[in-house]
Each structure stands twice: as structure tokens, then as C-alpha cells.
Amino acid sequence: MRSRKSIAVLLLLILPLGFSAVWRLQHQIDRQLDRAEEENDDVLLRSGKLVRVLSLEYGTFLADVYWTRAVQYFGLKRFRQAMSMDMLWPLLDLSTTLDPHLLVAYRFGCFFLAEPTPQGAGQPNLAVMFVQRGIAANPEYWRLYQDLGFLYYWELRDYQKASEAFLEGSRHPDALDWMKVMAAKIAGEGRSRETSMFLWRQIYESTKDDTIRKNAFNHVQLIKAESDMEQLDEILFEFEQEHTRLPDGFGELIRLGLLPGRPLDPAGYPYALSTLGKVEFDPKSPLAITTKKR
Amino acid sequence: MTRTGIVAWNTFREAVRDRVLYNLVFFALLMMATAVLVGQISIGIDSIVIVSLGLSAVSVIGLLMAVFIGVGLVYKEMDKRTLYALLAKPIRRWEFLLGKFAGLLLTLTVNTAAMAVGLFLTLFYVNRALHSADLVVLTAVYFILLKLAIIVALALLFSCFTTPFLSICFTAGIYVTGLFVKDIRSFSDITGNPALDRVAVWFSYLLPNFQNFDVMGAAAHGRAIPGAIVAQNTLYAAVYCAIVLAAAAVIFSRRNLK
Predict the structure, then answer these.
(1) Cβ distance A87 to A75 under 8 Å?
(2) What ipTM goes with this model?
(3) Which of A94, A184, B130, B184 is the most buried (most CB within 10 A)?
(4) What is the predicted pLDDT for the residue at B167?
């Protein structure tokens, strides 16, 4: 009897202790493995031609596998806020060498490549080259011209080339009319808030993917906020001119009738006023977090 | 029913009895898992991956069946000595061979058709509808079947004069080489030797060109396949099978079965 009891007590002690040790150990092992995984991040076969030969007649399926790997890799690196995405290009290269008609890889892949780190790989020139390759393989698909124009406009700020890309795409019989309008507008004005807003809206409306939609939505909100801040700065400037001092806060501006109410950013968070008299995002606002990341 | 038809029907029944069609369960599970998972782990390729994986699976499963059953069609009958009882009946050797070919082709057709139904059901589940562009998938499935017909004919040819192991090696070798026919034709670009080029070109026309039947990419992206290609590929497969089966019949007829 006594020995049975002591075994039960022992088990009650050993089991929780043992499992808590296992739990701790597993966490340590996971950390080690994560580190090793990051160090071993590699694409063993980088030659698209070789992989195409080895894939026999199943290149299309293998392209899907590599594209999925690229998405996973990009997602993981973005989640970890990694400063380099060295493997992204080989994965995209392999996907589109195996299946040159994999439009989705060009459309999303170019954004993965172009966005500045840690949001993307920070390689806008490579992204442009990638889209140009996509256009060469799929000349009938006008949306790739939209992406090319966007990359020149947003990431490289080369407005002449952006305009040329939109114009080239607009010549396609299926292209929407706004491509021609964009070509003319960018050629005439260069960068403008209106154009940026329109282009991001196009991306928002034309994509089915949630991550890209969310990113485009964030940019649309940031552009709106940029406009709000500019207007608020003007009001502050007028106040300072009149009173030769900065206001105590937005409350004073509301009391004087300069503002109808507490100004909110497009995400619904109140704008803050810094001690230097600059309008800023509320630190809790998702837009503030996005701005910090960029 | 003709004598060839009886052999074909019994070959089909034997394959069903051997639980060959069990692979359909694997295919169904693979399609179900893909349909559920792909949307979670990738972007924008839901239906592309269903089509490309589905067609790849149809092709690989069909190839395995065609090669492994094909090489045993004649050898098994000889090994079990059932061939002697059969040939003692009023049936010509070429009729027996043709029956075996037709029987395995029937098995593959039933199997491929069932997998195609599974593939379309998965596509319907993922897209919540079927579009006219999805019809290209049917053409791709048909092309896989044509390719399998040539493989069966080749496997049957080799099984007439060699062991199953060597038959597998020869059939698989010709299949892989047949996927690189275009590269063989451009051999002279590498060597720069016109004589070698001529040999390579002649050799490339002797081999079955399996690249003709590779339309998986087009099917995955919903690109139309011209009717002329369908007709030409059908004719190509029929002519090639006829040549190989005629060679097999000649070899098998002359073979000393004592």
C-alpha cells in the first residue's frame, strides 16, 4: 500500500516537473532550429533551365510549388522584419522560368521585390526587370504594364518611364481608358497626390489577395492623412502668425472655431500635436506603425 | 464479342480484381487536401495549382500503371503458363496482343476518366463554378490518355522479348528521352557537327515525341488548344501505336514459346 502511494506521489511530482522540463527544452530547441533554419535558408538548384529539364513535363506544377515557397518565404521574412530577402529573387526566377505564364508571380512578385526593407526586398530595379520579363512572355496581358508604370512612378520616381509604360499598356485593345489618362497626367505633372491615390486605389480594387489589398488600403489612408496634415499645418501656421505662439492643443483651435472638432486620421485615431507644433499620428494608430516601418 | 474483345475485357477484369483502381482513393485524398490547403499557403493560384497538380497526378498515376502493368501483360501469362492454354484455342497471337493492349487501355481510360471527374469536382469546389475555359482541362486529360496509349504499346513491345525489369528500364528510358525530342534536334547547335545533326534528327523522328502531349501549362492558364492539334495528336498516337504494336506482333509471333 505504502509503496503504491509513494509511486503515486512520485508520479504526481515527476509528471508536471518532467513535462515542464520538456516544454522548456522544446522551446530552446525551437529557437536553435529557427536560427539554423535562417542560416540554412537556401535554394539548392538555382538554374531555372536545369530545374526545367529535371521537372520533365511537370514544370507547371513545380512552378506553383516554387511560387508557394516564394510566398511563404516572403511572409516569414516580413513577419520577422528581416533586413534581407536574398532567396526571394531565385524563387521568383525559378517559378517564372518553369511557367512563364504564371501571371500572379509577376504581379505580386514585383511588389515583394520592390518594397523597401523590411516590407520587401528593396530591389526596385530587379522588380522592373522582372515585370519586363513578364511582359515579354505575356504581351497580351496589359495589367503588367500597369505594374511596370506603378513601379517607375512609386518606387523609382522615374515619371517619364512611368508615363511611357502606361502609354504602352494603353495601346492594348483590352486596356482600360484610365491607362491613357495616367500616361498623360504623369507626363504633365510628375508625382501628385491625386495620381498616387488613384494608382493605389487601382491596386486595391484589382487584387483579390488580402495582404496586397491591406497594403494598398494602408497607402490610400496614408495619402489621405498626408492631405489632412497639410491642411492642419496651414491652420497652425495661420494661428501662429496671428498669435505669435503655438496653440495649447487642438482644443484651443476648436474653441476659436478654426476646427469643427477633434481631427481624426483616416484610421479613426485622433491626430496629436507635438511640442514643436507639428501634427503627428497617435502612436496607437495603425498608420503611425506603418509609417515607422517604412 | 470478337476474340480480341474477349481478351481485352478479361484484361480489364483482371486489373480491377487486382485492385488497381484503388489509386483513385489516393487521388481523391490528394485533391481534397490540395483544395483545402492551397488557398491558405499561396497567393492567387488556387485553380492553377488544382489543375496542374491534378493533371500531374493523373499523368504520374497513369504512367506507373501503364509501365508496371504493361510490362507484365505478356510475361505474367507466360510465367503462369496460362498463355499456352490460351494459344491452344482458336486465337492468333497478334489478336491476343491487341486484346491485351485494348484491355489495359480500357483500364487506364476508366481510371483517367474517374480522376478527371474528381479534378472537375475539386475545381468546382474551389471556384464555386465551372467555366468554359475549364474545358481545356478535358483536352489535357485526353492528351495524357494518348500518351499512355503509346507507353502501353511500348511496354507491350518490350515485354514480348525481354524480362519485366529490362522492359521497365527501356520503356521509362524512351519516355524520358521522348520528352526531350526538341533538344535532340538542336544537338548540332552544341556539337557543330552536321553529320551528327542528321543522325540526331533521324533519331528524334523515330522516338515518340511526348512533348506533343504536354499541354498542362495551357490547361492551367485556361489557354485554348486548337482543334487541329487535337486531331493531329490523335492521329500521331494512333499511327505510332500501330507501328509499335505491329512490331510487337511480329516479334511475339516468331517467338518460340516452348
Answers:
(1) no
(2) 0.72
(3) A94
(4) 93
